[in-house]
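Posting here for the record, re: ISC.
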Amino acid sequence: MGTSPPPSGHRNPPDWAPNLPRLGTPLGGSTFLLSGRSGSVHGVGRERTFATTQAAAAALHSRSCRGIVGALPFDLDDPAALWEPADLTVSAQPLAPAAPPQRRSVTVLARLPEPAEHQRRVGEIVARIRAGQAQKVVLARAVQLQVDEAIDPIALAAAFAGGNTANNAFAVALDAAGERYAGQWLVGASPELLVRRRGRSVQCRPYAGTAPRSPDPVVDEQRAAALRSSAKDLAEHSFVVEYLRRSLAPFCTTINAPTEPTLLSTGELWHLATPISATLADPATTALDLALALSPTPALGGTPSAVASEMIAHYEGDRGFYGGAIGWCNSEGDGDWVVTIRCVGLAADLHHLTAWAGGGIIADSDPAAEVAETTAKFATALRALGADPETVAP
Ligand SMILES: C=C(O[C@H]1C=CC=C(C(=O)O)[C@@H]1O)C(=O)O
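Prediction output follows.
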């Protein structure tokens, strides 16, 4: 994916990155930042808050707003944090950390659930899948963390970016979602592009199928090769690609996806990913319309979607914003939405955090391996926090 043009109709400062908003400015509760390969999109101020996703989509269609930024929850019936910023700026420069992540001591306050319970749940879901109740379910667990020094969400987003523009780093104030989220933030770096729309061109880059990286290059290569030929991971991945093909079909005239996924890596993990490109049938369909139609994919939900969502609610309860999408859409309907993974929820006191990690479960998943996979996924947040990934190991 090359550099994409900035959303039109907004000013384009030559060098935005050095002027990162700092905490304590009046912008805190309405800051949106998404930074990746095509640069950084930064919403400041809040002109209008949308009570529902439908209201936001309608405002874009009626051309009565200049653009929308924010976060979609995992369950689209839950409150979203969507608003029209007073200003939306784009910099060609992606966010870069000022320095390596500051070393922090991170205390684990709770594991929700304990890894042994997560393993038991995975075993139960495998049995339910084998009994024919579903084909794939993505089960997640969370860890609650505490740090001594208050966290600056923008600096943490820069640490999540880690200098790698393939990581879509983000910091999103959640105040627009209502009282329950006052002062809270969502901060992370997602490798997974839910959807990008530029004119009639649509792109998705789903991820599913995972192996941990190794510092030893030979072992690292072996793990990548094993992932590429893992029947279990290829099957897990195929549910997501099939779902996207089906879900894009009503909106698109052409849909192109390679028959085999490619291997992509983050600093901590290898993944199977498929770059999908499509052409919109109706140019009135906005990036937000597409995000609402696609989220959550079986990379976070499962197959069939409704059954998987019921199982997820049963085992995990309310996921809030984890597993949803964060992004922006301008008045032309162009925009980017990334899947809300590899992230933390930061409490209003800026000292308490929740990190989430999930994994796709199919009929031949191994419950102990699924616990290990979630532990490996937590490493992204721990590295950004400047903590030892072993901090959350079972
Ligand atoms: C659910 C997560 O990852 C998804 C994205 C990539 C690979 C995944 C997997 O291999 O299970 C998950 O579908 C997460 O990071 O919490």
